[in-house]
């Protein structure tokens, strides 16, 4: 009795002494990751790492395959997440105090200014990276079977990223914020342009309903700010995180990154870089019956030309993360996030400009609220989402611009895209548009025939011509995507640099009249 | 009710549904019904029955010395009030394009956000604005007028 008691106490004492080691072993079930085998099981058994496959193809590690753009986007999101949570400690989402609390963050809270700057710059980096990442996926045709669904998820991520940016710059409740909400909410209301022209707004007012749901009131005020705050800090980040999880998981499930057909010849140059895992080719090809469909990638052939994800892929990812942090830090040091005057519902800024990534949109919105704000963006958005289902060719998957001749086609398309949008804009700026020539023209005509829609039609016509000329859907897609990218750049530059007070054209901001 | 093996049934007397299947289907049906009903209930949530917005109907004291053709803008309001030989009238200064506040100038009004232009009577002269600036209902007299921003009147109505 006495002995048993003593030994239990003894055992407790030993357990207590060995607890740290036990905790360590419980965490790393397969032992410390020292060999390729334990590293593999480490990746496999870790909730955060197991989104990666255990081994990574050498092609995926090449800089030119992805340029790290997806990881830059993710890293920028993580940076905004961390700094955003820190900002939430001091930010107060209420019109009277929101502006003051941003000032507090800027001038009083230790490192507050730096945190806000990083938050803002990381958000900008995220927008740039997500657009470039989309372009990369498009130009390497990585949207093709079986990756169509992941393109779709990415499509959702792009919109969510832009929505996060939009809801974000509303929160300081300065002039930019106030007039951005006003304009955004009125774009949501712009289907009234159509229903008004048809005379049915009284019975069917989808635009008015959208505006009211967005604002929570008839006016832009406290209800609106709380709604946008909640979207910015809760709903959209949750949506983004879920889409990201699916996005990453699908990369693995769809067989890693897209690779060209002759990938083995391309990466097998240096035998020192890799070594065979199966020293003998298996003689039999077999299926894992009823467990997975089809042949598993690793059955029937050795997983050659792959290296363990740990450490090769993880070091690459960490490198890109640190690079992104460095960029954000640098930008945050040299440039402060702007804070304009306190929101004034009586006097808009002149010009009232959105952040740069929406200025292309603002440029076409300045022709028609409905077509510029809803019609054309919806067309682009639906077209983007449908790409994998409209182009089902298999030639050139995983290669930049789809192989030989592709780069040339993209070059010509870019030239056409730049030239047409610049020409149409120059014409509209120099000679005006329908309203100036025919003052009594019905509004519906202006809504549907304006520089924005003309550019869109010209792009579509070019794309169809290319599609027929080369008898290839991929060629048509390359042309259309490149044109829209060029148009986005042209409109953004015009909106950013060449538009001044009253949205008039100026060669330089230094020519703006004083007011 | 289970069917005995070998039992023959006519096509007018089909096999009764097993009790478990029935219960399962009933549970599924109730779940879908509950989901749909609660979804419709929740759809009403974003739109409050009464929304907090200031009164759009207010009194204005018009200065006696207001020159003809010059806009009087009551403090805190987006309205331009004019007086001429025929009477007093008011135009909304909220741009019909995307809600920016237009500025009165010599020719009429101009919008700072997307370049819409309006004539003195509110008609669109330039830019993307889909409709004219609305004329607002004005009542009263002798310097004190009531403006109702929610009631629009025909262009040219003066009191």
Please describe the topology of this protein.
The complex is a heterodimer of chains A (515) and B (159).
Chain A: H1 2-27, H2 36-44, E1 55-57, H3 58-61, H4 63-66, H5 69-88, H6 95-107, H7 112-139, H8 148-168, H9 175-189, H10 192-198, H11 206-215, H12 222-253, H13 263-267, E2 306-308, H14 309-334, H15 356-365, H16 369-390, H17 406-431, H18 434-437, H19 443-448, H20 451-470, H21 473-497
Antiparallel strand pairs in A: 1-2
Chain B: H1 19-43, E1 57-61, E2 79-84, E3 87-92, E4 103-104, E5 108-110, E6 117-119, E7 124-126, E8 135-141, E9 144-153
Antiparallel strand pairs in B: 1-9, 2-3, 3-8, 4-5, 5-6, 6-7, 8-9
Structure, described:
The complex is a heterodimer of chains A (515) and B (159). By secondary structure, chain A is an all-alpha fold. Chain A is 65% helix and 1% strand. Chain A has helices at 2-27, 36-44, 58-61, 63-66, 69-88, 95-107, 112-139, 148-168, 175-189, 192-198, 206-215, 222-253, 263-267, 309-334, 356-365, 369-390, 406-431, 434-437, 443-448, 451-470, 473-497, and strands at residues 55-57, 306-308. The longest helix of chain A has 32 residues, at 222-253. In chain B, strand 5 and strand 6 (117-119) form a beta hairpin. The radius of gyration of chain B is 32 Å and the shape is rod-shaped. Chain A binds chain B through residues 179, 182-183, 185-187, 190, 193, 196-197, 209, 212-213, 216-219, 221-223, 345-352, 362, 365-369, 372-373, 432, 435-436, 439, 443, 446-447, 450, 501-504, and chain B through 46-48, 51-54, 76-78, 97-101, 103, 110-115, 124-128, 130-131.
């Amino acid at each position: 009795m006495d002995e048993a008691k003593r030994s239990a106490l003894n055992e407790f004492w030993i357990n207590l002494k060995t607890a740290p080691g036990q905790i360590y072993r419980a965490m790393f079930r397969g032992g410390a990751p020292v060999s390729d085998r334990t590293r593999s099981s480490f990746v496999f058994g870790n909730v955060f790492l197991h989104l990666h496959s255990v081994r990574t193809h050498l092609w995926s590690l090449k800089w030119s395959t992805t340029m790290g753009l997806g990881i830059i986007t993710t890293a920028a999101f993580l940076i905004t997440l961390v700094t955003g949570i820190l900002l939430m400690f001091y930010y107060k989402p209420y019109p009277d105090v929101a502006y003051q609390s941003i000032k507090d963050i800027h001038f009083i809270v230790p490192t507050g200014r730096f945190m806000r700057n990083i938050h803002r710059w990381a958000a900008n980096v995220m927008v740039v990276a997500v657009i470039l990442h989309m372009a990369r996926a498009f130009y390497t045709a990585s949207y093709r079977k079986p990756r169509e669904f992941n393109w779709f998820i990415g499509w959702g991520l792009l919109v969510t990223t832009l929505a996060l940016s939009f809801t974000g710059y509303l929160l300081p409740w300065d002039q930019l914020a106030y007039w951005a909400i006003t304009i955004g909410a009125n774009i949501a209301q712009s289907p009234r342009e159509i229903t008004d022209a048809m005379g049915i707004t009284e019975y069917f007012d989808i635009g008015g309903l959208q505006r009211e749901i967005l604002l929570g009131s008839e006016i832009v005020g406290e209800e609106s700010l709380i709604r946008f705050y909640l979207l910015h800090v809760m709903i959209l980040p949750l949506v983004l995180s879920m889409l990201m999880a699916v996005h990453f998981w699908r990369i693995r499930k769809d067989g890693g990154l897209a690779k060209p057909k002759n990938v083995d010849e391309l990466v097998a140059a240096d035998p020192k870089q890799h070594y065979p895992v199966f020293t003998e080719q298996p003689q039999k090809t077999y299926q894992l019956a009823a467990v997975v469909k089809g042949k598993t990638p690793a059955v029937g052939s050795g997983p050659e030309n792959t290296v363990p994800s740990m450490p090769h892929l993880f070091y690459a990812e960490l490198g890109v993360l640190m690079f992104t942090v460095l960029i954000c830090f640098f930008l945050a040091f040299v440039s402060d996030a702007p804070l304009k005057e306190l929101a004034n519902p009586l006097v808009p800024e002149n010009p009232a400009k959105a952040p740069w990534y929406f200025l292309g949109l603002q440029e076409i919105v300045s022709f028609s609220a409905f077509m510029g704000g809803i019609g054309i963006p919806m067309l682009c958005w639906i077209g983007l989402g449908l790409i994998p289902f409209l182009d089902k060719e298999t030639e050139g998957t995983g290669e930049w611009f789809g192989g030989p001749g592709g780069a040339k086609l993209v070059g010509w398309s870019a030239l056409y895209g730049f030239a047409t949008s610049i020409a149409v804009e120059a014409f509209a700026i120099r000679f005006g548009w329908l309203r100036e020539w025919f003052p009594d023209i019905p509004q519906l005509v202006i809504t549907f025939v304006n520089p924005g829609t003309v550019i869109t039609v010209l792009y579509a016509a070019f794309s169809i011509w290319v599609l027929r000329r080369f008898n290839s859907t991929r060629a048509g897609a390359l042309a259309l995507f490149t044109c829209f990218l060029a148009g986005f750049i042209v409109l953004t530059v015009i909106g950013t640099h060449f538009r001044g007070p009253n949205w008039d054209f100026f060669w330089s901001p230094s020519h703006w009249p004083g007011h | 009710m289970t069917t005995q093996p070998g039992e023959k049934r006519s096509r007018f007397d089909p096999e009764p549904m097993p009790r478990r299947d029935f219960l399962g289907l009933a549970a599924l049906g109730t779940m879908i019904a509950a989901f749909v009903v609660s979804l419709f209930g929740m759809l009403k949530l974003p739109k409050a029955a009464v929304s907090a917005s200031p009164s759009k109907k207010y009194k204005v004291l018009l200065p006696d010395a207001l020159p003809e053709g010059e806009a009087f803008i009551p403090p805190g309001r987006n309205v331009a009030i004019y007086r001429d030989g025929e009477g007093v009238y008011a135009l909304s200064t909220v741009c019909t394009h995307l809600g920016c506040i237009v500025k009165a100038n010599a020719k009429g009004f101009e919008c700072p956000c997307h370049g819409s232009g309006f004539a003195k009577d509110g008609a669109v002269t330039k830019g993307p604005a889909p409709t004219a600036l609305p004329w607002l209902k004005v009542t009263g007299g002798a310097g004190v007028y009531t403006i109702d921003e929610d009631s629009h009147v025909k262009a040219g109505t003066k009191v």
